[in-house]
Structure of Transcriptional repressor NrdR:
Amino acid sequence: MHCPFCRHTDSRVVDSRTAEDGSSIRRRRECPNCGKRFSTVETASLSVVKRNGVVEPFSRDKVVSGVRKACQGRPVNDDDLAVLAHKVEESIRAAGQAEIDATDIGLAILPPLRELDEIAYMRFASVYQAFESLDDFEAAIARLRAEDAAAEPDPS
Ligand SMILES: [Zn+2]
């Protein structure tokens, strides 16, 4: 890490702090040449391997744009989408891998999207899971209903 003041090629770490969500580390550094201090932020890289083999950095914006279409006309705003993208990133980072398949991102999107809006969820799932017929929709809806029923408190 070059010193931003004198371009010295070395620096000494004087303090390290991990961000609350654990996704980055902020370091205070001191230049041994000019004695000035500066900060750097390190983020663990998270790469996405696309179906065609291309590797690109994970992007919350891409998650949002991928989901936005499914949310058209639904009561979902940009804040909701930002929270969703954050949840997706957290669940992916929690897996602790530096590289993930694009399809795994789709899988990670499904649970928080379902919490957000079931219609948007069905739309997204139908594209992502390549529903081919009404039977696929029926099966997915039956699954949703069964899980909703199981999640409801016992009326007795
Ligand atoms: Zn310096």
In short: The beta strands are 12-18, 24-30, 37-43, 47-49, 55-57, 99-101. The mean pLDDT is 88. The chain has five helices and six strands. Residues 3, 5-6, 8, 31, 33-34, 36 surround zinc ion (CB under 6 Å).
